[in-house]
Write a structure and sequence with these properties.
Elements lengths: L1 E3 L5 E4 L2 H11 L2 E6 L6 E5 L1 H17 L6 E6 L5 H16 L3 E7 L8 H15 L3 E10 L2 E8 L14 H7 L1
Length: about 170
């Protein structure tokens, strides 16, 4: 079998008993790394340290991994302007957090006769959140629902500063 030193250097072809004796003298383990090779390749290493290093690398890889989260916001064709604004702000919030947003237009009853109304609302939504989003999936009718998927834009503007005073703020100023 071919024997490899702990530093990665080649020791050469040795007998199994000789390799075991060498591993025992060095206080290391004899680990078979390529059993299918001719001759088989074994390495002198501290197996416990090797397993620990592997688990640390796996943990680091999991920590740096990003999970794709899809948030859903549902609309109706007869949505009011204030309700539309609330849902638009929610979509922007989700996009700012780096999540994908699935916008669903739900049709009921006779609303199915005019899917273009729902498509227009979804298009208006996209036009208003365009600085924050890109369309991943165009609006598509699926049964009684029309869905559109938005992903966060790479060139997202800084936070908007809303300087609108509420009724409570005005009453405190007086």
């Amino acid at each position: 079998m071919r024997l490899i030193a702990p530093d990665g250097g080649q020791i050469g072809e040795k007998d199994i008993d000789e390799a075991r004796w060498l591993a025992k003298q060095l206080g290391l383990d004899l680990v078979e790394v390529a059993p299918d090779a001719r001759p088989p390749v074994v390495r002198l290493m501290d197996y416990g340290k090797f397993k620990y290093d592997q688990s640390v690398k796996a943990r680091e890889a999991r920590k740096n991994q990003t999970r794709t989260v899809i948030k859903e916001v549902q609309f109706r064709p007869k949505i009011g302007t204030s309700d539309f604004e609330v849902k638009r702000k929610r979509v922007v919030k989700f996009l700012r957090q780096g999540d994908k947003v699935k916008c669903t237009m739900r049709f009921r009853g006779r609303e199915m006769a005019h899917p273009e109304l729902g498509r227009d609302i979804l298009q208006r939504l996209y036009e208003e959140v365009e600085p924050y989003a890109e369309i991943e999936a165009m609006p598509k009718l699926d049964g009684r629902n029309m869905t559109m998927v938005l992903v966060p834009s790479d060139t997202m503007p800084d936070d908007e500063v809303e300087s609108e005073a509420t009724d409570d703020d005005r009453s405190e100023e007086e």
